[in-house]
Specification:
Elements (H helix, E strand, L loop, with lengths): L1 H6 L4 H12 L4 E4 L6 H11 L4 E5 L6 H5 E6 L4 E6 L6 E5 L6 H4 L3 H6 L1 E4 L2 E4 L5 E6 L12 H4 L4 E3 L6 H9 L3 H7 L6 H11 L6 H16 L3 E3 L3 H17 L7 H12 L4 E2 L5 H11 L4
Parallel strand pairs: 1-8, 1-9, 2-5, 5-8
Antiparallel strand pairs: 3-4, 6-7, 10-11
Length: 294
């Protein structure tokens, strides 16, 4: 993480969340205004783990085949041949994902859930690991389409980078160009090493009492008056997986309630379907405050 923190200044918590998401086998949604380092973070993650990297700029005229690939008829053989799209990579940066239409956004659903894509009835397995980092502009910006709930649920964590503090911004203004720093990054682990680290993360212990606390949070989300759709069992599994990775990155082999609390808002806020215009972030914080640790 130290290498990435040298490129993305003043954001150690967000960098740790990104590493947690990768080690837990999830996908990451970065939501913020343009120009705060979302793309830089994705590049730095790929470089640090020697992952193949592809970037797709999502626009309103982007088609699903531009992402997944297309079958082309070859006259010489009399057969269709599949030409893979940029989704066949280790880390896919879906830049400004909410500028594409819902039809194009949905092209990522199968790949993010199952690590495969289906074209013309044929299933094609994606490389492993397969990690999607999507960036999203705030919905009040022109030309954006909100992500459907089913798409949001495929992202393990939603993180906002926010503006840098004064010290970090001064270092940005007086330091080297971020593109030059990215070019200097060296792999800290290869793909096999990353897979082993992820395996170790999922062996971190979670006690019965810890699971009781996690289940209490899930149950509270389902009965809250301002929540129309609470957290699903899949969200619970994602929270446990992420908490194990967070604990390992914190130097521990057991999960603490503090790990659940550190991850709950980034994991839950975008999944909660609220009523009366309530904010998912504020409701997630409210749930944390309401559910006691026994």
């Amino acid at each position: 993480m130290a290498q990435v923190n040298r490129v993305l200044l003043g954001k150690p918590r967000q960098v740790k969340l990104a590493f947690t998401c990768l080690l837990a086998g999830g996908h990451l949604l970065l939501e913020d205004v343009p120009g705060v380092g979302k793309t830089t973070l994705a590049h730095a993650l790929a470089a640090s783990f020697e992952l193949d990297f592809q970037r797709v700029q999502f626009t309103s005229d982007l088609l699903p085949s531009d992402i997944i690939g297309v079958s082309v008829y070859e006259r010489e053989t009399g057969q269709f041949r599949f030409h893979p799209g940029p989704i066949f990579t280790g880390l896919l940066l879906a830049d400004e994902i909410n500028r594409a239409t819902p039809k194009t956004q949905s092209a990522l659903l199968e790949s993010m859930a199952e690590g495969q894509v289906t074209v013309d009835g044929q299933t094609h397995i994606l490389p492993q690991p397969f990690f999607v980092v999507a960036t999203q502009n705030p919905l009040d910006l022109a030309g954006t389409f909100p992500l459907p709930d089913s798409q949001l649920d495929r992202f393990m964590l939603r993180v906002s980078l926010d503006y840098p503090d004064a010290a970090a911004e001064r270092a940005l203004l007086t330091g080297s160009d971020r593109r030059d720093l990215l070019a200097q990054l060296t792999p800290q682990l290869d793909v096999a090493g990353l897979a082993e680290l992820a395996r170790r993360a999922q062996s971190v212990t979670a006690s019965s009492a810890l699971l009781d606390y996690l289940q209490a949070l899930l149950a509270a989300s389902r009965r809250h008056a301002d929540v129309r759709v609470g957290l699903s069992p899949r969200a619970g599994l994602a929270l446990l997986s992420a908490a194990r990775a967070w604990a390992m990155l914190s130097g521990r082999q057991h999960v603490l309630p503090e790990d659940i609390q550190a991850l709950f808002v980034p994991l839950a806020a975008h999944r909660l379907v609220t009523t009366r215009g309530a904010s998912g972030d504020s409701l997630a914080r409210s749930l944390l405050a309401d559910v006691a640790v026994d």
